[in-house]
Amino acid sequence: MLASPTDVAAYLGVPVKTLYQWKYRGTGPAPLKVGRHLRYRWRDVDAWLDRQSPYGLTA
Question: Where is the Helix-turn-helix domain (predicted)?
């Protein structure tokens, strides 16, 4: 199932603008382009979230 940037932003608790900045910088979850629209796979969002270390620290 695909999610819109609004859905993902709400899930992550960040503004939609942040998702677009992450896309530009290549640092956030990988979006898909469906026609003119950005969409996200939930599994990609969760995988990206799992790779994030708390407070930028490594274990």
Answer: 4-53
Q: Which amino acid is at 14?
A: V
Query: Do the beta carbons of residue 14 and residue 6 sit within 8 Å?
Result: no
pTM: 0.84
Helix 5-12 to helix 16-25 angle (10° resolution) is 100
8-36 per-position pLDDT tens digit: 999 999 999 999 999 999 999 999 999 99
Closest CA to 3 of 36, 52, 35, 44: 44
pLDDT at res. 56: 59
**Edge-to-edge, what's the strand order for the sheet holding 31-34?**
2-3, 37-41, 31-34
